[in-house]
Amino acid sequence: MYSIDCMKKIKILIPLIITFCMNAVVYWGVPLLQTGIKSHNLSGPADGMFPFMPQFIIVYFGCYLFWVVNYSMASMRDEKVKYQFFTADFYARLVCMLCFIFFPTTNTRPVLTGTDIWTQAVRFLYTIDQPINLFPSIHCMASWFSCIAIRKSRKIPEWYKVFSVLMTVLVVISTLTLRQHVWQDTVAGIFLAEVAWQISRRTKGWQIYQHVTDRMADKIGSWMGMKRDGE
Predict the structure, then answer these.
(1) Residue 101 CA: distances (Å) to CA of 21, 30, 95, 156
(2) CA–CA separation, 50 vs 76, rounded Å?
């Protein structure tokens, strides 16, 4: 076998890399497809229940670090739970891709007139992130997955589990108060994450994911010319 420590590190990184690549394909790749399908605007009166609050931009951008931390924790859990988790995430992002292609949605954003730092930050967000790829909300989906990642881990303190739930709630609120999503997007994102997780842990698809990633780890190990133990 290859050096145990090196292979462990590779096996921790591979699911994270696959997740990042899959997200890139879904989020940035889908808009490149010219399907001609009309976008649906799901904005409605219920969205007015949440006032526009640009201060939530901190949460909206800050949750990326939250995802990195919790997904990394998931990648270091025992083999079965780890691969069930990343298989579920793969399923969910695949569903997102299909929704973005065949049921594209948009929403109604406010006209930004303020010059304060918060409004300027939201203006920057609107510039780099067009109102597409909304249903389901990947922000809400990934945040709920971040809760699932540590939900039953005995190694994670209870206070951090509570923090993860609170952080997820704040992320959901941020998507609504920044007018990045409507309530249907947020509910769909959370629902999709939970259903994908329940399917993954009750079926054997995770074993295929594990087999593929193990083969990738072996290939990478060979490519890097790792020494076998004892050599």
Answers:
(1) 18, 7, 10, 38
(2) 37
CA gap 136, 140 in Å, rounded: 8
Smallest CA-to-CA distance from 91 within 148, 34, 131 is with 148
174 or 225, which is more confident:
174
Q: Which DSSP category does 37 fall into?
A: P
Query: What are the phi and psi torsion angles at 41 (to 5°)?
Result: -95, 110
C-alpha span between 136 and 61 (Å, rounded): 18
- Rounded Cα–Cα distance for residues 125 and 119 (Å): 10
92-140 pLDDT tens trace: 999 999 999 999 999 999 999 989 999 999 999 999 999 999 999 999 9
Does a cis peptide bond (omega within 30 degrees of 0) precede residue 136?
yes
3-state secondary structure of 129: coil
Q: What is the pTM of this model?
A: 0.92
The DSSP 8-state label assigned to residue 130 in this structure reads -
How confident is the model over 7-21, as a mean pLDDT?
92
Q: Are 85 and 193 in contact (CB under 8 A)?
A: no
Write the CA distances from 204 to 25, 26, 133, integer angstroms: 25, 24, 29
Residue pair 192/96 in contact by the 8 Å Cβ criterion: yes
b/e string for 8-30 if b means 16 or more Cβ within 10 A? eebbeebbeebbeebbeebbeeb
C-alpha 166/C-alpha 162 separation (Å) is 6
